[in-house]
Write a structure and sequence with these properties.
By secondary structure, the protein is an alpha/beta fold. The protein has one domain: TIM Barrel. The chain has 10 helices and 10 strands. The strands form 2 sheets. It has an 8-stranded parallel sheet. Strand 1 and strand 2 form a beta hairpin. Helix 2 crosses helix 3. The termini are far apart. Bound molecules: nicotinamide-adenine-dinucleotide (NAD). Nicotinamide-adenine-dinucleotide binds next to helix 9.
Length: 278
């Protein structure tokens, strides 16, 4: 438990990850260090970044300047698509930008199926984990067939799969596969990235009213009540507190069913099977 009473989730290698963190995609350069320091001061102990976000250096300087012991902060970063041919070098560059000697979680950002390199990249991550410089390793945006291939060819099951999930895009089949294989699901875009009317839907507003919570708190709690890991992005101080104040209520079965009915299988990010951007 952190100062904010954020629960931990156990990963399949026995390591613990705080169920709630801060995501820093699109937190501007020049603003990230302050935002991460605010989050750590508020009691967040989990930061999700990526080389693609171009703010690893600011994340690292905030972690080092915070006064919070390194071992108490969970830091995730990711291997970008164009670096798939050079995973080890790219990982070392991420560590250098972060100014850290290890990360808690290192992810393959997208499977890039057209390039067919995911298994080789996964083998490199297995070596990185064996070296102790990434405590846990996992993947992001992997579909069932991509996970099956990694597991069949290496025997090493990713600790997490970080995928787009929110009430408009619930990914039930993929989530069930992950759960059956001991892969923790991290939901990116947990609030649909602010790109929909999700927070104005009557089902969300009714639950918010019933529990004296904001619509965003209802949606974030809907994720944690199903065991997912989330790291909603905000650079606004008051929202850092709002987004973390979600562990003191339970949605009823009827409210969960009402939110389940919102699934439109509608993604706002790229399609992982078709995204091959290099
Ligand atoms: P999100 O669903 O967290 O949405 C963020 C937006 O929601 C904010 O910009 C703001 O407009 C709004 N918001 C935040 N708190 C709110 C509140 N309390 N009330 C009302 N609105 C609020 O989307 P995201 O940032 O894309 O996803 C979260 C994190 O997931 C990212 O920062 C990043 O770390 C990660 N991510 C990963 C991938 C991937 O491919 N692996 C892709 C996108 C994001």
């Amino acid at each position: 438990m952190s100062a904010l009473a954020i629960p931990n989730i156990s990963l399949n290698n026995g390591r613990q990850i705080p169920q709630l963190g801060l995501g820093v995609y699109k937190v501007a350069q020049g603003e990230t260090e302050r935002t991460v320091l605010d989050a750590l001061e508020a009691g967040y102990r989990h930061i999700d970044t990526a080389s693609f976000y171009r703010n690893e250096a600011e994340v690292g300087s905030a972690v080092r300047a915070s006064g919070t012991p390194r071992d108490e902060i969970f830091v995730t970063t990711k291997l970008w698509n164009t670096d798939q041919p050079r995973p080890l070098e790219a990982f070392e560059e991420s560590l250098e930008r972060l100014g850290l000697d290890r990360v808690d979680l290192y992810l393959i950002h997208w499977p890039q199926p057209e390039h067919g390199q995911a298994v080789d990249v996964w083998r490199a991550l297995i070596d990185i984990a064996a070296s102790g410089r990434a405590t846990s390793i996992g993947v992001s945006n992997f579909e069932i067939e991509h996970l099956e291939q990694l597991i069949a060819e290496t025997g090493v099951v990713p600790a997490v799969n970080q995928i787009e999930v929110h009430p408009l895009h619930q990914r039930r089949e993929l989530s069930q596969f992950c759960s059956d294989h001991g892969i923790a699901v991290e939901a990116w875009g947990p609030l649909s990235q602010g790109k929909s009317d999700l927070l104005e839907r009557p089902e969300i507003l009714a639950a918010a009213e019933a529990h004296g919570k904001s619509p965003a708190q209802v949606v974030l709690h809907w994720h944690v009540q199903q065991g997912r890991i989330i790291f909603p992005k905000t650079s606004r101080r008051e929202r850092l507190f709002e987004n973390a104040d979600i562990f003191d209520f339970e949605l009823s079965d009827a409210e969960m069913t009402a939110i389940a009915s919102l699934d439109e299988q509608r993604n706002f990010g790229p399609d992982p099977r078709a995204f091959n951007d290099r």
